[in-house]
Amino acid sequence: MNQAIRNSWIAAIAMFVLIFGALSYVQVVGADELKANPWNRRAILQNYCNDRGAILVAGAPVAESVPGTESCKFQRTYPQPELYAGVTGYFSKNYGLTGLEKSMNDVLAGSSDQQFLDRVGQLFLGNQPKGASVELTLDPKIQKLAYDLIPEGQRGHIVVTNPKTGAILAMVSKPSYDPNLIATQDATAEQANYTKLNQIPGINLNQNVSGPTGELLAPGSVFKLIDTSAALKSGKYNKDSELPNPAEMHFPGIDYTLPNYAGGNCYTRTTASFAFALQQSCNTPFASIAVDLKQKAIADEAQKFGFGQDFGDQLKLDSALSFFPTEPLDDAGLAQSSIGQRDVRATPLQINTMTAAIANDGVQMQPNLIKAVRAPDLRAISEPKPQALRTATTPEIARQINEWMVSVVDDGIASRAAVPGVPVAGKTGTAELGNGLNNSWFTGFAPANDPQVAVTIVMENVDIITGANLTSPNAKKIFEAVLNK
Fold first, then answer.
1. Active-site residue, 221 included
2. Catalytic residue among 103, 221, 273, 337
3. 327, 418 contact by CB (below 8 A)
4. Are the CB atoms for 425 and 402 separated by under 8 Å?
5. Which of 118, 154, 280, 439 could potentially form a cystine with 264 if both were Cys, beta carbons 3.0 to 4.6 Å apart?
């Protein structure tokens, strides 16, 4: 009998501890996580009709709360919806929050720790709490230009940054969508719109990442910049090295050959300098480097430039991790991977930060979207300062690659990115998709001797001519627009 009573007491105490632990977790340990969960409808409904802070670009709202109905005093609206949807995300009663609406929810809702005194003041005045506004680093003219440079019906992404500070000047994707369709208070229309938009290829409203931060694409020949850095860092190669440049690269024991790029002048030489190999985007020299240095050297260098790494805490958008294969590759697989094919994948923002590191003497800055957070009285709550993310390579190697990238524009296949009177550094990439179409890339910066802007463009599923017309020439337009401001 005593044993039965003892067991009952043990069970009761265990249940009490379990309940107490669960309550402690919900109210203390996991409170912030649960509060920030975009599917926490209780938190959404609590703030849905409040005066939420605006998201601003050059002082103009790209997301704001306007007077609503008697039953819901404020309605979230997006004045330039498609242009900024990939950044703002949406604020929906039934589908949660995405984009900056999600990541900056505390300050926009006025519930952050930094706004405690503001909330107390509002309560004493008998007013409803008001959220803080979030000013973005985006340049509205460059954002609009970049968006318009992607033709309607074309899947593409453009990222424009300041390589010295990490500030994002433009970040766009197509197809885009209208967040107003998801933020509506008409539940029937909201559901129908959500279902319809999710059926459009290239739009996934369940993702909390925009195309430039979340779309993982084969980078093609822009990856050769990493091969080049790895080669110079190894000590086995220098700026005067002559690289093997056969028309095809053969691999013992398998019926496969890796051909050189057919669109340039690679076939005119059996050996090549780094400058020529980059100018003409020859495949076999870089594949030979990778096979010589082995997989670990290339993978380690990719990691140093950000592959497999996050973007730091200043981006304020969810992002996908770019990757270079870590499982063992044979020589043929390594050769393919070294030219950005096979299983290598990168986001447009990753390629931009890789390029910006070369522009910035080897130092990658944290990409940053937030210029300032301001209280309703316009007082600055926070103003993020530029922060280094990592050192990708040495200043000497970065400057040497910079010089070779200038020759790619001056004398190579990226010549249509040239800006009169301004040294431009660039690299093109064509990632074959196996269906006769490609992902066409351009990445580069200007002025090469004092970089102010880094531009990365990728157009998906295009033929060679279309890709060439939509990448380097459009980069030129963006360079000119930024530098002429």
1. yes
2. 221
3. no
4. yes
5. 280
